[in-house]
Write a structure and sequence with these properties.
The structure is a homodimer. With about 500 residues, chain A is an alpha/beta fold. Chain A has 15 helices and 19 strands. Helix content of chain A is about 40%, strand content about 20%. In chain A, the strands form 4 sheets. Chain A has a 7-stranded mixed β-sheet with strand order 10-13-14-9-8-15-16, with helices on both faces. The first copy, chain A, is globular and about 75 Å long. In chain A, about 55% of the residues are buried. Chains A and B meet through helix 4, strand 1, strand 2, helix 8 and helix 15 of A and helix 4, strand 1, strand 2, helix 8 and helix 15 of B.
Chain lengths: ~500, ~500
């Protein structure tokens, strides 16, 4: 029995070696393509995948148990991401061009002509996630941003959707080759041992991962302990706490808790931004509203058997703690689990944080009842690194919540006001990251335009003749991109 | 006997604890200062250090054995760095502001208002270097860039200049406090064990280091193996190879080798950018010119006894390899060693790379004679990650050297044409970094405006009311900084 449990078999060591060798050979010709040429590659992949929707969505449906409208929306988001990165690389700011012309009068020493830009790191291994079989998988954000940067991608498929991975990879590869990408620009591999080998291979220059804290940390440790450590961009666990103030409760209580139930059960609770903790003032009087809202959500099958097992274990562990009670216990049905909602107090959470501060992947969340606003700040500090943190509050409470807001700003990648963390817009301003354990690289995002920054490093050319400079650094700004010229952002040419 | 060997004693564990606690408490008020306020702090420190030159330079002279003009120049560079970062933070691009206004028509889902900016990571521990007692020490580039970012700094002093470190720290602290910095913004600590503790302390959020590969790697491993790994910006070893083409040799040979001798013996060869390998076409006929140039350089004392010991061992190890010969053997005198120049062939280097591809800290370098241009590319690949790589060539050889140039671009942080790597301009376009082992973080630089990026992480605010947004993210661009508004760089306000 293979890891994938299907006719898709695990990649052998010699196959991996050949794939990595092709990726290493592709690195230089891919890096040499212009941003415009790479934008065409990305748009070509997007178009091919849009046209393949009727082939891919049913496969995704059968392997992930996710509903068709969600999967069609996710595929649209995935091809939208590819097109966003095409726009991003044509805009040109990502190249980080700085030109300091020679200054013979500089003190303490004369300054030579210095021209800096970012260049691709080289082959990247991307570990696909289970929960977004399109958007965080074969042609997902990590792949799109690495290809946009000019890095070949070796995609370690998630065992939860092997056939979909194989087929998506075939479409990606066909589109890349049809649009002139070097052979080796992209490939897919299967198997745990394959991923472990890839992250340690000297030809691999960076890795990106979305998944569990345990697996992500193990791979991070391998990347860091190489003879030549490489950047490892892991998105691991997140609790995504939601804090509701007394003002918000009194004016919008029922609406807030109904939206909360929708948010935490979205995709059967299998979002990395699922709100796992809801802080409500004690005496909220909303238990019946909550129970009714949860009861309206039907059973939904989880992604795969391992996730079912992990989910049942985690819920069991939570529910059995002293001071933790079920608002809605949830049931295991033939069509998957119905949602679970647990209840505890802020004092209890702070006294026994361990199981409650671990991510529980699936349709369960914990209502935490608090009596003093200070408990919110103590909880925020106990919770630590998170992808998101949310406050529901009223405008006239702004000054009271400011200290909590700053506590959360120091611990989360995205801070949300009167909204919900599920649903991650793919745009310039999005940040999908956060301090450990949300990610292993707090400076970086795996969603949005800035995801490309992960796969680039600066190079400075000193005194280089115009004919040997890469086009973005030449005097004439032929690409018409923003450049910093002697400290000032401009699209002007370098004056003669 | 303490590590420092002077009356400056090692910091105790309880002193370190108190210092880290003050740094942790300073983090939030320091982060809350405006860029303009922090710019005034940095300029205040610069002014104070400039005025203290007559106190500090003699101390530096006695502890480092470096000549006074060099030390005065280095102090000027150091205060220039502080002033550059003041300008950088006032310019505002470093904040990375992106504002995507709400778009109810966005597909597949409506987009909320998203506003991203960078915020400081929190307390940073900086490990000072031995070789630049001002510019890479207490008030050096790491300190300046971390303070500019809004991070408190705990400076682990280098044992080579303890009195200077203590005094410089006193001036830095006096200036910071006089200009209103929170108590705990800066402090200095002493001792190997202190540094080891600091890098593992949960209150420390990042570390920066300049020094040997062995020490840097050990600290990197500690940072990566924490329960919550932190970014570790280590600048370790670099060989800084120089490649001379036949054309350059025939037109400028004597001039090039004389400049090479000046460069490799600068600061008694104790620069991280010291050219450690010079590739010359065999039959260069310049041995006499080289020997004469080396003979003109007098003895110079090295920084401290440990560096003397390491240097003598490394030279001995190199000189005793088969196929390695002395052009100038160097001597140990009471005033320190005179420079050593060794000679080998490219074939020998490729056959026995180990000792020759390790950095030798001090006034020694190796002349490598080659017979085919292909040997240069093979050597470039064998050498690996470097801070710099240099080509001396003539314009009519541009096309022939292009493949070598790309090999070097893929392995070095800075690629130099007809110049020398020593002397690192502090400017926007400088990149002082490179693939491992040049650094442990190839995306980052420790010199120049972009050094600030190491100490910042993004936060995205979603749907946040104007009154709770940090000033750089509000509709009115009061700071008049470049911001990306719905994908377009502008200084405009957000339209109502």
């Amino acid at each position: 029995m293979t890891e994938t449990g299907t006719r898709v078999r695990e990649t052998t060591e010699s196959e991996l070696d050949a794939i990595l060798e092709r990726a290493a050979r592709a690195a230089r010709p891919l890096a040499a393509t212009s941003p415009g040429e790479r934008a065409q590659l990305l748009r070509g992949v997007a178009e091919t995948l849009d046209l393949a929707a009727d082939d891919l969505v049913p496969l995704a449906r059968s392997e992930s148990h996710l509903p068709e409208p969600r999967l069609r929306g996710e595929l649209a988001r995935t091809t939208g991401q590819l097109r966003l990165f095409a726009d991003v690389i044509e805009e040109g700011s990502w190249l980080g061009v700085c030109i300091d012309t020679a200054d013979p009068h500089a003190r303490p020493v004369p300054r030579p002509d210095l021209r800096r830009m970012l260049v691709p790191l080289g082959p990247v291994v991307v570990f696909a996630a289970s929960n977004f079989p399109f958007a965080f998988s074969v042609a997902g954000g990590d792949t799109a941003s690495a290809l946009a940067a000019g890095c070949p991608v070796v995609l370690k498929a998630h065992p939860g959707h092997p056939e979909l991975s194989l087929h998506t990879a075939e479409f990606v590869n066909a589109a890349l080759l049809a649009h002139g990408a070097p052979v080796g620009t992209f490939d897919v591999v299967f198997g745990v041992a394959t991923g472990v080998s890839a992250v340690q291979d000297p030809r691999v220059r960076a890795a990106a991962f979305t998944g569990s804290t345990a697996a992500g940390r193990a791979l991070f440790d391998l990347a860091a302990s190489r003879p030549d450590p490489i950047p490892f961009y892991g998105e691991l666990g997140s609790l995504n706490p939601v804090f509701v103030t007394p003002g918000a409760l009194s004016r919008r209580g029922p609406e807030i808790v109904r939206e909360f139930v929708t948010s935490y059960t979205l995709g059967a609770g299998q979002f990395c931004t699922k709100p796992g903790l809801l802080f409500l003032p004690a005496e909220h009087g909303l238990s019946a509203v909550l129970a009714a809202a949860v009861a309206e959500i039907g059973a939904a099958r989880l992604l795969n058997g391992r996730i079912v097992e992990g989910y049942e274990h985690a819920v069991q562990r939570l529910a059995s703690r002293p001071g933790v009670h079920a608002v809605v216990p949830g049931e295991v049905t033939g069509g998957g689990p119905t949602p679970t909602l647990l209840r505890t107090t802020a004092d209890q959470l702070l006294a026994d944080p361990d199981p409650m501060l671990e991510e529980c992947f699936g349709p369960a969340s914990v209502l935490v009842e608090y009596t003093h606003p200070e408990q919110l700040r103590a909880a925020a500090r106990a919770i630590g690194g998170n992808l998101t943190a949310t406050i529901h509050s009223e405008p006239d409470e702004a000054e009271q919540v400011r200290p909590l807001l700053i506590d959360l700003r120091d611990r989360a990648g995205r801070v949300i006001w009167n909204g919900w963390p599920t649903g991650v817009a793919v745009s310039w301003a999005m940040h999908h990251g956060g301090p450990y354990p949300a990610t292993t690289a707090p400076l970086h995002t795996s969603v949005g335009a800035h995801a490309i920054d992960r796969f680039l490093r600066p190079v400075c050319y000193q005194g280089m003749p115009e004919s040997l400079l890469p086009e973005p650094l030449r005097d004439h700004n032929a690409l018409n991109i923003p450049r910093r010229l002697n400290g000032v952002l401009t699209t002007n040419d370098v004056p003669a």
